[in-house]
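Notebook entry, structure prediction.
Reason for the run: the old model in the group folder had no record of what sequence produced it. Starting over properly, with the input documented here first.
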Amino acid sequence: MKYYILLFLLLNVTFNSTAQDNNKIETIAIVEILNDSFVVIDLDTISLNSTLKKVSQLYNESNLNQNDIPSITLIVNPSVSENSIENIKYQIRSTPIQIINLQRKIITNYDGIDINQNVLDQYNSLISYWNTLSPKDRFYRENDLRFVESVALNMTMDQRIRNEKLPGYLPFVKKESKIIHLSMLDEDPAQSYIYIYKSDTLNKDNVYTNYNDNSYVLKRRILNEEKVNIIELSED
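New structure, fully documented this time:
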């Protein structure tokens, strides 16, 4: 799994492209999450809790080659709660699916100009959710951050007053802090970490030997729908 997370981070692989080593990413199904109760998969509307059974069936019916990487695309409607998204992801991870591509419907269709009520509802929903989390639990999808930043920049004064206040903790508002020494990093063994130096991904076994005194920036992101701590090491 960590290999595919790195694939997304460093090579900017799209879900319809060919990955390294001739591994081809194949979409098994597109799952539209309608609300907290129902999803549409392969033109069938089923209960959210039946997702595992349906995805497993489609996977078993697929004609994958040995090197193919099975993926699922999730299309999320604005009324869907984060708990329902996590429920779907949990079910999918019980299958051989290796890549989950999540697309929020409003964000995908957002043109960066028209700030309508649907856009504002999605903006408010994201900020409200982030506000419920402690700082160490706030992991962000880059698409979500870009969307919120764009909406915040393009809202009218009246819209600013009537909608969620832009939090000062977001990375594009306040840059993530630089920590003076890597040795100060307190790793959580239950979480995933990626170490980056000059755009190269480092082997964890060598990081603390060769870069222990380097400063770093910790970025909490969601890659391939996995929470990942990205450690960006400075050149000092």
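Summary: The radius of gyration is 19 Å.
The old model has been moved to the deprecated folder.
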